[in-house]
């Protein structure tokens, strides 16, 4: 659901000598004992604590989404900076909403030791909100970094894809299906050229067991696998989504595109991949072979994450062509990134 941090303010806290920053949720969402005035349901299984203000100082707002606000926060004991996502409990109107937040935190705990997955630091819950403190990623979005670099090659795309698929492999190894892989959900940790790329959003992720099937249609239209639209899917959908990202990395546009979401869905079901437009004639056969195998419409025939990592194009990523893919690809990536940002702003979801 995002990344954020807010300040709780119970009466006992307000009487302390060191005055804390007020809780942005407390005035609007009073807690009552079952008369409908608030939400005193406990969301998290094992929060770090209740009083986030005893450990973190809140700074500026970083973003705002459907369920809450993301803040820059500073750990009082170290001075280290983090992102904190504060989710208003009043906006968690159903048992499904509550379970989604609970599961997101549990999944982040499950995956917290991977170098390319944003690290969960702490979680707090007071009467009015859940506060998820996590690693702050200040290096910007994937496509923005590619556009800014200027020199963009197939070799660079291979390095990015290796990282993304390593994240998928780790998720699947731990019984987690991401379900919403897309470029916007990967940020660089910092602005250094050597900064690691981090997967940041697990709001739609699910735990799964071998052979378990799912039927809920979730995710972002361009990146949905055909079996999601058919309501019968498993973790193979993450490899499909990574394949869509790879296609975009190599040519700057999605493989399945239309003016409407219904048209996009129809294109996904048809699963016809265009390798004729520029720059595909200059892209290596190995790269095209991997795209085809990741975008196989039959999930049983589609490569697993491990098989993608064993593919010659990934195995020999450092030897992939280092010739620029062309200004057209960079321009398309920039346009695609801008379009996504505008769409988010239109929906009021800028996290």
Automatic annotation (TrEMBL):
An example molecular function term from Gene Ontology annotations: protein serine/threonine kinase activity
Keyword tRNA processing: no
Name assigned to this protein: non-specific serine/threonine protein kinase
Gene: LOC115719522
Domain of life where this protein originates: Eukaryota
EC annotation from Swiss-Prot or TrEMBL: 2.7.11.1
Record's catalysed reaction(s): L-threonyl-[protein] + ATP = O-phospho-L-threonyl-[protein] + ADP + H(+); L-seryl-[protein] + ATP = O-phospho-L-seryl-[protein] + ADP + H(+)
Organism (species): Cannabis sativa
Key words of the record: ATP-binding, Calcium, Kinase, Metal-binding, Nucleotide-binding, Phosphoprotein, Repeat, Serine/threonine-protein kinase, Transferase
Sites where the protein binds ATP: 85
Residue segments, region Disordered: 1-41
């Amino acid at each position: 659901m995002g990344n954020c941090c807010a300040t709780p303010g119970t009466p006992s806290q307000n009487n302390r000598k060191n005055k804390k920053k007020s809780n942005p949720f407390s005035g609007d969402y009073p807690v009552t004992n079952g008369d409908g005035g608030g939400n005193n349901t406990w969301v998290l299984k094992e929060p770090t604590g209740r009083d986030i203000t005893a450990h973190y100082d809140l700074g500026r707002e970083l973003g705002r989404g459907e369920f809450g606000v993301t803040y820059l926060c500073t750990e009082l004991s170290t001075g280290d900076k983090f992102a904190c996502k504060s989710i208003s409990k009043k906006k968690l109107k159903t048992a499904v909403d509550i379970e989604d937040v609970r599961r997101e935190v549990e999944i982040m705990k499950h995956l917290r030791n991977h170098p390319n997955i944003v690290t969960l630091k702490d979680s707090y819950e007071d009467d009015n909100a859940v506060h998820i403190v996590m690693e702050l990623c200040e290096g910007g979005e994937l496509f923005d970094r590619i556009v800014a670099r200027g020199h963009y090659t197939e070799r660079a795309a291979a390095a990015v894809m290796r990282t993304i698929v390593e994240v998928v492999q780790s998720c699947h190894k731990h019984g987690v299906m991401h379900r919403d892989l897309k470029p916007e959900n990967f940020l660089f940790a910092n602005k250094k050229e050597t900064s690691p790329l981090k997967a940041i959003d697990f709001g739609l992720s699910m735990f799964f067991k071998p052979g378990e099937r799912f039927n809920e249609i979730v995710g972002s239209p361009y990146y949905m696998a055909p079996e999601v639209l058919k309501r019968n899917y498993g973790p193979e959908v993450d490899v499909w989504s990574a394949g869509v990202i790879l296609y975009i990395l190599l040519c700057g546009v999605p493989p399945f595109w239309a003016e409407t979401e219904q048209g996009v869905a129809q294109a996904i079901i048809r699963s016809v991949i265009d390798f004729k437009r520029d720059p595909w004639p200059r892209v290596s056969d190995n790269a095209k072979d991997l795209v085809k195998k990741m975008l196989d419409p039959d999930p049983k025939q589609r490569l697993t994450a491990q098989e993608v990592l064993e593919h010659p194009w990934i195995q020999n990523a450092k030897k992939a062509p280092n010739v620029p893919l062309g200004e057209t690809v960079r321009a398309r990536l920039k346009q695609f990134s801008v379009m996504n940002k505008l769409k988010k702003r239109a929906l009021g979801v800028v996290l």
